[in-house]
Specification:
This protein is α/β, with parallel strands linked by helices. It contains ten helices and seven strands. α7 links the parallel β4 and β5. 33% of the residues are buried.
Length: 256
């Protein structure tokens, strides 16, 4: 059905039959379009179903383990952060931990999934009052983040940059929202070590074949790419450390 609709929009053959070459050309366009759609979706998961939400809850300790926290605090420091924002907050467990570790007075959580935000509200309500957090549903590829300028002390984006179409745009929005001296910390998969990535994914419950297929898409950015996104957005004093057999990296920049 898709091919027929696409073909009908490409040419009007109401008064003649298409030539063989014309048909081949249209079919090639359809194949290329389908390949592009499939390849782009491999990097991005659908987390709208409740079972996917609970799966992320169960996998949280595997992604945000002790080494991650040691690395984050080494790069960000341990001083109090009054206002924190998590871009791609998922079920909210990271925000809960950030509140505890940095004694935040107010937090923002942004995510595309309504189911994730509902779970985040439940977890946050067990830690802080409802007046101390705001959760917002947003499509990062289509909408701007609704935050005032100079509003937050620490921003975080975990496993987000490989999913969105324009990471540089999000970095620029975060830069505007940060206070002077505020920090933006990115955690993401990085290119360069496919075997390490596959072992990481298999250890998290993914089968090896699926992990190999997803490597080019989830690890499409290098550490240099991530630092460049921050640098181009205006961040300075950018530092990073690789973790998990160099399959992921924590990258931090400061707004001066």
């Amino acid at each position: 059905m898709f091919a027929v609709q696409y073909l009908s929009h490409q040419c009007d053959y109401s008064d003649r039959k298409p030539s063989l070459n014309e048909l081949i050309d249209i079919l090639l366009k359809i194949v290329l379009l389908l390949v592009k759609l499939i390849m782009s979706n491999l990097a991005k998961d659908d987390w709208s179903a409740e079972d996917r939400v609970q799966r992320m809850v169960r996998r949280y300790p595997l992604s945000y383990h002790d080494l991650f926290w040691v690395t984050l605090q080494r790069l960000v420091g341990s001083k109090q952060k009054d206002v924190i924002a998590d871009f791609g907050c998922g079920p909210g467990l990271l925000l809960v931990d950030l509140v505890k570790k940095y004694h935040a007075k107010y937090v923002y959580g942004f995510d595309e999934s309504e189911a994730m935000l509902k779970q985040a509200a439940r977890f946050l309500s067990e830690t802080i009052s409802d007046e101390q957090f705001t959760l917002q549903r947003i499509n990062f590829d289509e909408s701007q983040v609704m935050l005032e300028s100079d509003a937050i002390d620490l921003a975080f984006a975990g496993h987000m940059f490989h999913e969105i179409a324009d990471p540089g745009n999000l970095a620029s929005q975060v830069f505007t929202a940060l206070k002077q001296g505020g920090q933006f910390a990115i955690l993401d998969y990085i290119s360069g070590n496919p075997d390490g990535f596959i072992r990481k994914m298999v250890g998290s419950g993914m089968d090896e074949k699926h992990a190999r297929a997803r490597y080019p898409h989830m690890c499409k950015h290098s550490v240099d790419d991530l630092t460049e996104f921050l640098s181009n957005a205006g961040f300075s004093n950018i530092v990073f450390e690789k973790i998990d057999e160099a399959s992921r990296a924590v990258v931090v920049g400061i707004k001066r």
